[in-house]
Amino acid sequence: MKIQILAFGIAKDIVGGTTLDFEIPEGTNVAQLKRQLQKDYPSFTELTSLAIAINSEYAQDEQQISERDEVVLIPPVSGG
Amino acid sequence: MIDIELLETPLSVDACLRNVQNVEAGGIDIFVGTVRNQTKGKKVLRLEFEAYAPMAISEMKKIAERAQQKWPVKRIAIHHRIGTLQIGEIAVIIAVATPHRKASFEACQFAIDTLKETVPIWKKEIFEDGEVWVAAHP
Predict the structure, then answer these.
(1) pLDDT tens for residues B76-112?
(2) Which of A36, A70, B12, B136 has its CA 20 to 30 Å from the CA of residue A45?
(3) Are B135 and A72 in contact (CB < 8 Å)?
């Protein structure tokens, strides 16, 4: 299935834009998505951390992604 | 009462103070985070902040709610700026009103420390010879 991923901060620079259309198998979970992203964009492995948010909440590794979810890449935050 | 703002316009310490003042609170602690002119001796020209806005607001609300659970917080304001900020400008204000001073210090420190760990806001430092997303790399 095709999902659209939003990217902020350095993640935006790594994927080359604020949105990324990404093809994943049905039932893909957060850990699997992260592994695929790190394979396609090795720069992600150099970051201090990479979290995924689903529908505005931090997602756990085992959480499954569905087509209607808002999926967002959260590189290390640095507010304040 | 919780007052959360994510703003593209300059922040106001007066507004935060006004919003947390309360007759039951004998102590108000205010933290103000400003833009420093250098990082590790390197001159910073300006900062650029961006946020995943809906989640940044909900995470700031969670921090305020957790502060209310841990301390007797009467009112709390968390205002964060986004966009381009010049040296000396205010990036964040946290104001906490509690019956006695000790809790206001502790709750305010908890709020800023947690904000820096969990709220999806990113800052880029612009130097004379390049730019860096802060904290992105080890």
Answers:
(1) 999 999 999 999 999 999 999 999 999 999 999 999 9
(2) A70
(3) no
- Other beta carbons within 10 angstroms of residue A68's beta carbon come to 7
What pLDDT is attached to residue B28?
98
ipTM: 0.96
Name beta bridge partners: B31.
B94
Candidate from A8, A72, A80 with C-beta closest to B91: A80
A53 vs B51: CB contact, 8 Å cut-off?
no
Provide, as residue numbers in chain B, all residues whose Cβ is less than 8 Å from the Cβ of A15: none
Contact assignment for B115 to A80 by CB distance below 8 Å: yes
**Which residues of B fall within a CB distance of 8 Å from A10?**
122, 133, 136
User: How does DSSP assign B17-51, residue by residue?
Assistant: HHHH--TT-SEEEEEEEE--SEETTEEEEEEEEEE
- Taking the C-alpha atoms of residue B124 and residue B35, their distance in angstroms, rounded to an integer, is 11
Structure token digits, residue B84: 């381009």
The HSE-up count of residue A24 (CA atoms within 13 Å, CB side) is: 25
User: Which secondary structure element, helix H or strand E, spans residue B39, and what is its range?
Assistant: strand B38-39
